[in-house]
Amino acid sequence: MCGAAGIEALRGRGAVPLGETGGGISAEVLCGLPERMAQGKGGGLLAAGLFGFDGTPVAVRTDVRAVNAVDKLTGWGLLAGRLPLAGHILLVGGEVGYEVVRRALVAGVPVVCGVAAPSSLAVSLAGEFGMTLVGSLRGERFNVYTDPGRLDL
Predict the structure, then answer these.
(1) Whole-structure pTM over 0.85, yes or no?
(2) Closest to 95 in 3D by CA, of 131, 70, 130, 128
(3) Which of the four pLDDT bands, split at 50, 70 and 90, describes residue 135?
(4) Considering the chain, what is the average pLDDT of its residues?
(5) I want to staple 74 with a disulfide (CB 3.0 to 4.6 A). Which of 89, 96, 107, 114 is the partner?
(6) Is residue 31 annotated as a catalytic residue, yes or no?
(7) Local confidence band at 14 (pLDDT 50, 70, 90 cut-offs)
(8) Is 114 helix (H, G, I), strand (E, B) or coil?
């Protein structure tokens, strides 16, 4: 119920589907993101990393919850005058839940990936707003849940 009300609130705030922001993200780039993020994170904490479509690391933040690390990244983007974060990929080191997708949407991130599977509400939100959502990103495998148009598979 809370998530459904949250989606309605996003619509009420004027959130609109994300536009096309280029694309052509290769499977090789996606599969390399977890290792690149691990190089920039501290031990024992969950991380969120922001990358260019070519896999170039932009920023990594850590916290005890992945959603808190996403808050740190979006705060960094705001303070640095970089919002919206179009043309970027967000990777979280945990589950891609509704709150992660909501924060990415507000920040304008068109591609969200997680090393774990997303929640069904996260998939619904990403699908409604035209976000590319990738989950279970491990090794050379991953699942694409919504809008594969930004990916070169």
Answers:
(1) yes
(2) 70
(3) very high
(4) 87
(5) 107
(6) no
(7) low
(8) strand
Instruction: State residue 41 phi and psi, 5-degree precision.
Output: -115, 155
- Which of residues 22 and 118 earns the better pLDDT score? 118
Active-site entry in 2, 64, 79, 153:
2
Identify the CA nearest to 96 among candidates 115, 80, 77, 78: 115
Omega into 84 within 30° of 0, i.e. cis?
A: yes
Q: How many CB atoms lie within 10 A of CB 29?
A: 19
Question: Where along the chain do its domains lie?
Answer: 22-152
Q: Across residues 30-36, what is the average pLDDT?
A: 94
CA distance 53 to 23: 7
For residues 97 and 67, is the Cβ–Cβ distance under 8 A?
Answer: yes
